[in-house]
Amino acid sequence: MSTRQFVALALLALLGGIIVFAPEGEDGGDAPGSSGPTTGTLSPAADAPSGAPPSCLPCHQSVVDEWRASMHAAAFTDPQVRAPDQADNFRKTECLPCHAPRPVFEYGIEDATRVVARVPRRHDGVDCLACHGLADGSVAASRPGLDGACRPVLRDALSTQALCAPCHNQHNTHDEWRASPAFAAGETCQSCHMPRVLREGPEAGAPRSGRSHRFLGGRDREFALSGLTLEHEIADGALFVTLTNTFAGHNLPTDSRNRALDLVVTLYDLRGQELDEATVFGPDRPERHPGGERGTARRRFRNPYRSSGDPSTQLPAGESATLEVPLPDDASRARIELLYKMEPWIGDEQAQWSERRELTLD
Description:
18% of the residues lie in helices and 20% in strands. It is of the alpha+beta class. It folds into two domains: 209 residues, no CATH class; 140 residues, Immunoglobulin-like. The strands form four sheets. Strands 7, 8, 9, 11 and 12 form a five-stranded antiparallel β-sheet that branches.
């Protein structure tokens, strides 16, 4: 392509919002391990808002706004992802494919398929083309008969859980879904993580029904609690606290092995003093794990690191787990807490979110 032709195309892109594809090798990677071709990935326009796919904005402003607020947009830049114990600033190059992927459709979405890392614009994380991009430069759409500068083409698989598997089954989430009540009921990843919304205003095709691109997950307290049931009962001199994974889509917590969900019960005596574990359970109680120093009793749900050799304590979809705590005669009050942690060893006060209940013991 001549310099004059390239400049002409660039001007058209700025004026008309068409897609321009980066020449191979342009806009190289911004993390260790950058390699591979860039064909089929959008070249950022000079005046595009930071973190926004510029060619999608003219027609899909509300979708882009939702995406900007999602963890997909922060998949490459999130400090917790880049932490030394996780991607280590992506020196662990095996993390790159899922956190800055080339279009999934380029390599197929069969169960055994793995995504491939892209080179340009890694700071955009899991961007629009990661899910919508096709090998010929057009984009996948969930509706037929569309026309637009991006050449939308109907791909039924775009609306199925198969699109999520190449990334999210690296930590077995897709396999967990297949074993869940949600699978038996015909529900998919999109049923919960991409609920229906009404597209209005200048959005392409509005007014119409669409799916949210916020991709809510475990970090969002209200979303997470909507899939959990926490119950308690006092019987036979003990407090029974039961957590049920009513979400029924996958294990809890799922995906990253760093995540932990702690169920904590703290008993208090008549003076308001905390009753310690040894007082209630005796001196032979097993030693606590890091990040679980307080409370009278605790149960942790987590998929541990492979190197630990420890079994998974995740709570499978549709199942329940009960924490039983004996009640001494001087126990007068109890606190029940559910704590979601992004790292397993952090203190309870550093949890991403918590749910707390206070009980008076008769």
